[in-house]
Description:
Elements: E1 2-4, H1 12-24, E2 32-34, H2 45-60
Amino acid sequence: LAHGLLDNNVPPYNTFVVVEALIKANKDFDLLVLPSQAHGYSSQSNYMMRRRWDYFVKWLLNAEPPKEYEIKASSGRGG
């Protein structure tokens, strides 16, 4: 789970409701809170892309993500 605290589209409270349900269900989860980000993480898009990539590599491939690399997020406009 990831949420920007300045999100004016989906209030952060919504994510915290999910977090509370996961805790009550005794489920493991990961949460990334971005204090200065709104919906979409625009100024942190490269950071979010790398964090997602690292997470998938670790949990889907059961491998350690490489250190010191950079992934540049797509503009989302096709190509």
